[in-house]
Every structure is written in C-alpha cells, then in structure tokens.
Amino acid sequence: MQVTVRLFGALREHAATAGWARGLPDGATVAALVEELRGERLLPEALLASCAFAVNQEYVQPSRVLADGDEVAILPPVSGGTESLEAARRGPELRVALVRDPIDSAVLQAEIKRSSDGAVCVFDGIVRDNTRGRGTLHLDYEAYEEMALKQMGALAEEAVTRWKVRDVTIVHRLGRLFVGETSVLILVASAHRGAAFDACRWLIDTLKKQVPIWKREQFIDGAVWTDGEPFPEHIVGAGR
Length: 240
Hints:
The chain folds into two domains: 2-76, Beta-grasp domain (Ubiquitin-like (UB roll), Roll), CATH 3.10.20.30; 86-225, Aldehyde Oxidoreductase, domain 3. The protein has seven helices and 14 strands. The protein has helices spanning 9-15, 30-39, 45-48, 105-112, 145-163, 193-210, 233-236; strands at residues 2-7, 19-23, 52-55, 58-60, 71-75, 95-99, 119-126, 130-131, 134-143, 167-173, 175-178, 182-190, 213-219, 222-225. A five-stranded mixed sheet has the order 2-1-5-3-4. Strands 8, 9, 11, 13 and 14 form a five-stranded antiparallel sheet that branches. A four-stranded mixed sheet has the order 6-10-12-7, sandwiched between helices. β3 and β4 form a beta hairpin. The longest helix has 19 residues, at 145-163. It is globular, with a radius of gyration of 19 Å.
C-alpha cells in the first residue's frame, strides 16, 4: 500500500522536504512507519521522541493500522489556510480561521457583541521584542492547516458546551509577523464574565498544547523553532 508522510516545523527543516510518498506492507502501523524512518536516519531521534501523529487530520496512537492512501502527519510539539473568517465559519455562531493578513482586534470584537452579552473576554497574543533576553526580529508561523482548523473548531464547540458561553472566535495568523503584531486572537462572548474568563483561558492554554501550529523565532543572533509544551497524554499515549 501507499501512504503520504507529511512533515512540519523543525522536522520539515531538518529533512529539507515537506514529506514523501511511502510504500508499506499491508497491516503496517504508524509505529512501524516511524521505525522505518528511524532506521533510514531521515529524522532526528531527539525530536521524534516528542512527536505526535495524525492520520487523515486526526490524532492517533502509534498502534493505528494504516490503510492505502492514508495521509500520515508527524507533528513536533506545537508552539504555543483559509484566508477569510467567513470561509472557515463553523455553525451559526462559532468562527475559527487561519489568516495571513493582519488581525484587526477591534473589528472582530465589535462583530461578536450582542445585546444579551454581559461580557466579551479577549486574549490578544502579540509578538514581543525578546525571548529570554534575545532580541526578536520577527516570527514565522506555519500550520498543518486542514487539521488546525478542525482542532480550533472542536475547541470552540467544546468551550460553548462546557461553559455555556454564547459565541467564540479564534483567529491565528500564519506567515511572517513583526514585533507588536497580533499572532492569535480569542474572543468569548457570554452573559456572565466568569464563564467568559474561564473559557478564554482554557481555549488559549489548550490551543498552545495541541493545535498543530509551529513558530520559528528569528533573533538578532540566530533562529530557532520554538520548543513547545509536551503533547497531552491522551494524544501521544502511554508507554511510547
């Protein structure tokens, strides 16, 4: 059978390719594919040990059996598209998007407000001028776009269900960003401020752990892919 392997972030840079088509025996698992790549020394062992895996844009365990035509993504820890909000809308209220143009926080805040709301909680993540004292020139963001939009939409829906908020908007910028620009904007509209605060904090914390978006920091004295937080246990599985 044939599968497609996709690489992102530091893995893509190390391999100097976005992926390959691979032939595998019937019944092969994700783990078997990874062992094959290990044996060929195509990917750095230190980074592979912290990766998660997705098949057809859904997180899977390494034991997942592959089928002909599957797309297998090897995902380094995430840093914590679609070109318009309307194109990425999910449901009657929830909006999620990946954009390459600047994010206008004021416009999106005005759009989300309704007369029934008692609060709109805003998380506006911006590019700062340094990381641990190293001067920042710019950031470059990339994503596994199809999967990232699915994950963002699922998070928005879960926030509405768990905290009974009315509306959620999540917009993440891709491409090159400079100091002071908004990289991610999360808006939560609710009748009550407590629910809005709780949902907004959960959304940004969870997005930074599991939505496949990566950040490369260009400093005055060099560049690095940002070390992300470890994936949650339910994504990578126990005993890998």
